[in-house]
Specification:
single chain, 136 residues, mainly beta, five-stranded mixed beta barrel, 1 helix
């Protein structure tokens, strides 16, 4: 299974740290507004959508549906030639309205648009990496 070998960006490490910590713990957590409950992906320094709201990180379902997908044949990052090919998809997570999470797919599973998938966490170097596999 092809998986790109990269960790979280140092530029957004503080903002997205809870997401990456969740991945390292085998959990999927996303931010939402404490006032209106709207999911806010990707998180940013501006905070919640509502004026008096705060960002609350909440564990979400590890299942969803493939909205769209592509197979990456060319390395985009320096030193990434050994990582290709790999597949990337937008996943519509169950119960997380308005969010399409970009994640890797298990290349060998023959996953297609519209298929049901579930999160899996695989070791890549010294980190866990989120990969979606066919739902059980």
């Amino acid at each position: 299974m092809g998986i790109p070998h990269f960790g979280p960006s140092l530029d957004d490490d503080d903002v997205a740290a809870p997401f990456w910590e969740g991945i390292d713990d085998g959990r999927l957590v996303l931010p939402r507004c404490s006032n209106c409950g709207r999911w806010q992906w990707y998180p940013d320094d501006a905070g919640a959508d509502c004026p008096d709201g705060t960002i609350v990180w909440q564990e979400v379902a590890r299942t969803g549906t493939v909205h769209t997908a592509t197979r990456v044949e060319r390395a985009f990052l320096p030193g990434g030639q050994a990582d290709v090919p790999y597949s990337v998809a937008f996943i519509e997570l169950d119960g997380v309205d308005g969010v399409r999470l970009v994640a890797n797919l298990d290349d060998e599973a023959g996953i297609a648009i519209g298929d049901r998938v579930q999160a899996s966490f695989v070791d890549v170097g010294d980190r866990h990496h989120l990969v979606f596999v066919p739902a059980a």
